[in-house]
Amino acid sequence: MTHMTPALNDEPITGVILAGGQGKRMGGLDKGLQDLHGRPMVQWVIDRLAPQVAHLLINANRNLLRYEAFGYPVIADGIPDYAGPLAGIQMALTHATTPLVATVPCDSPSLPSDLVARLARALQENCADLAVARTIEHTHPVFCLARRSLLPQLNDYLARGNRRVTSWHALLKTCDVLFDDSTGAFSNLNTAQALARHIN
After folding, report:
1. CB 3.0 to 4.6 Å from 43: which of 39, 113, 128, 179, for a disulfide?
2. How does DSSP assign the chain, residue by residue?
């Protein structure tokens, strides 16, 4: 499914929802498929992200048929045994056909509706490799916009056994993008307790 939303400066952007984790904090449950107000949590993320990008992909490592039912291509990690978000970002950069790739987690159903536009603007203004969302409290490293040209560098980083997202960011020309007006938008519903509080 393709959206014809124009991208900044006519550069199309691919959005990728990262749903490939083990869900350890959720007791091993697949976070993206947990019910939130009558719909799977990932559907809320899709509804937020899809209008902001030209193409949408879902990164998942289990329940692939259920994710495919949302109508978007599903890509699994190339590294086995749940190697973390960078493995999903690697696949995002591998499968995307656009110059820019935005990633978000599957457990943040309130992500900003202008997330991609603001990241793209900062990326271009700073001539950066990567733009990362930040609130007053801290950065949100998987809410990012990356140039697809980073793929060879990321492949090398992962091949050496590295897995930390922030350590990879430190090797790049990265710019933080302040979302001080959207602090709650980055809340992760990654535990049963957080999900229950959001529902109630």
Report:
1. 39
2. -B--PPPGGG--EEEEEEE-S--GGGTT--GGGSEETTEEHHHHHHHHHGGG-SEEEEEESS-HHHHHTTSS-EE--SSSS---HHHHHHHHHHH--SSEEEEEETT-TT--TTHHHHHHHHHHHTT-SEEEEE-SS-EEEEEEEEEGGGHHHHHHHHHTT---HHHHHTTS-EEEEE-TT-GGGG----SHHHHHHHH-
Residue identified by tokens 């990362």 is 132
**Bridge pairing between strands 13-19 and 55-60:** parallel
The pTM is what? 0.86
- Gyration radius of the chain over CA positions: 16
| Cα gap 11→23, rounded to integer Å | 34
> What is the chain's pLDDT, residue by residue, as a tens digit (200 residues)?
444 344 445 689 999 999 976 555 445 578 889 888 889 999 999 999 999 999 999 999 999 999 999 999 999 999 887 888 999 999 999 999 999 999 999 989 999 999 999 999 999 999 999 999 999 888 999 999 999 999 999 999 999 999 999 999 999 999 999 998 766 788 775 444 444 444 44
